[in-house]
Amino acid sequence: MIDQVVNIAAVTVLGVLEQAYFSLQVIYARRKYSVSPPSTSGPPEFERVFRAQANCSEYFPIFITILWVTGLFFSQAIASLCGLLYLYGRLMYFQGYSESAHGRLAPLYFSAKVLWVMIGLSAVGVLNSMCQLYLGLDTLQYLSGLLVD
Amino acid sequence: MIDQVVNIAAVTVLGVLEQAYFSLQVIYARRKYSVSPPSTSGPPEFERVFRAQANCSEYFPIFITILWVTGLFFSQAIASLCGLLYLYGRLMYFQGYSESAHGRLAPLYFSAKVLWVMIGLSAVGVLNSMCQLYLGLDTLQYLSGLLVD
Amino acid sequence: MIDQVVNIAAVTVLGVLEQAYFSLQVIYARRKYSVSPPSTSGPPEFERVFRAQANCSEYFPIFITILWVTGLFFSQAIASLCGLLYLYGRLMYFQGYSESAHGRLAPLYFSAKVLWVMIGLSAVGVLNSMCQLYLGLDTLQYLSGLLVD
Fold it and tell me: Which residues cross the membrane (chains A, B, C) (predicted)?
């Protein structure tokens, strides 16, 4: 069991470290632009860093959830690879958004595309497991059999 | 193992798709009411959509966590059913809140009730597993035995 | 399998109950200070309660994720203990922040330290499992062997 999830667990720990890094950046921005809690309004430079972190935090549970469902029901290797790409996209997004509102767009579209791929793969994996369990059909194995023949 | 979680995994993927739908609605509302990031203030029509999505996002990790604990420790079938009801309640909440602040209340209470039921069932399931493991008692099986007799 | 996660599942349910308690406090604060949704601005007393809950909600998925990875890959007992300490720290944080912006600091640092310990332990556990799987080395068992000799 542990063997089947160790790589997605590693990507998960990396994702948590990335979120910790984003949180620290907000703390530094609060000091730099003198925005004391509980206020979250300030100069645009501060608000961009704050919103970048808020957006990444909002997507973090969705990402972790879909990473594990893809890893368990589709393929651990592909889930881990997509996970690394997503985390890279989020790092680019955070750095881009910190510089300008426009700079967030390209990496945001990239990480959204990776997330959609993972959502698609997890849906395929779960549907395949349901077909196997309730109808006795292994659609994915049948399709990969067709490719090999 | 996979058989014991495939239905809750399916509800999980549905939940992620619902969150994706809410996020898209915020993007459309930003365009419609010309509220550019990083700003999150605007006309009440925009703020309602924004807050509806923020509230659903905030509850998403709690929902997913409790869905899986209920599924693993109480019953996969009941967890999946409650999960579907919760997701339906959240859809009604989002649509109601988009129309008026008052429109959010009835579905909010409904989805909160479903969540409380799941929290209760997960607590019962986990306590039962702890009794089984540490005291050697299977309370749930004993109680259902009483009902059958 | 269930035996290996029942304690972290119990901490998880406690964590969900704590989040529910925080959410109820925001509802009471909205009534007390007459801040109707979708607005999130009001007197500092309200904004502190609102931000305290928002901060706890933001860290909740990170906490749950790292609790389970630590429990699965390092030690269930240590993960559960750290989890209880973290939840205690968050309760102190919420109560401190509700009283004053300064009151949040000591428990915030405490819960951040506990979270860093869990992140460290989960990283050690996952790396150890990867060494075992890909290199055939059980580093943790080797180290604990050295301590015993």
Answer: 6-24, 59-88, 108-127
Q: Which residue has the tokens 């979250």?
A: A40
Domain that holds residue C71: 2-148
Q: How many domains does chain C have?
A: 1
Confidence at residue C141, expressed as pLDDT on a 0 to 100 scale: 75
Decide if B90 touches C, using CB distance below 8 A: no
**What pLDDT is stored for residue C143 in this prediction?**
75
Triad C70, C76, C82: Cα angle to 5°? 65
Judged by a CB distance cut-off of 8 A, whether residue A120 touches chain B is: no
pLDDT greater than 70 at residue B77: yes
Tell me which residue in A61, A97, A127 faces B60 most closely, judged by beta carbons.
A61
Q: Could you tell me the pLDDT band of residue C14, with boundaries at 50, 70 and 90?
A: very high
Determine the 3-state secondary structure of A149 from DSSP.
coil
Cβ-based burial of B22 (10 A; exposed 0-12, middle 13-18, buried ≥19): buried
Inter-chain touch B119–C17, beta carbons under 8 Å: yes
Provide the 3-class DSSP secondary structure of residue A26.
helix
Give the tens place of pLDDT for each residue, C52-91: 999 999 999 999 999 999 999 999 999 999 999 999 999 9
Catalytically active residues of C are 31, 104
The shortest CB-CB distance from A69 to any of B1, B9, B39 is to: B9
- CATH number of the domain enclosing C7: 1.20.120.550
CB nearest C61 (choices: B51, B61, B127)? B61
Chain A within 8 Å of B24 (Cβ-Cβ)? no
Cis peptide before A61 (omega within 30 of 0): no
Choose between A34 and B147: higher pLDDT: A34
Nearest CA in chain A to B17: A119
ipTM for the predicted complex comes to: 0.88
Are the beta carbons of B2 and A61 separated by less than 8 Å?
Answer: no
In angstroms, rounded to a whole number, what is the distance separating the alpha carbons of residues A97 and A45?
Answer: 9
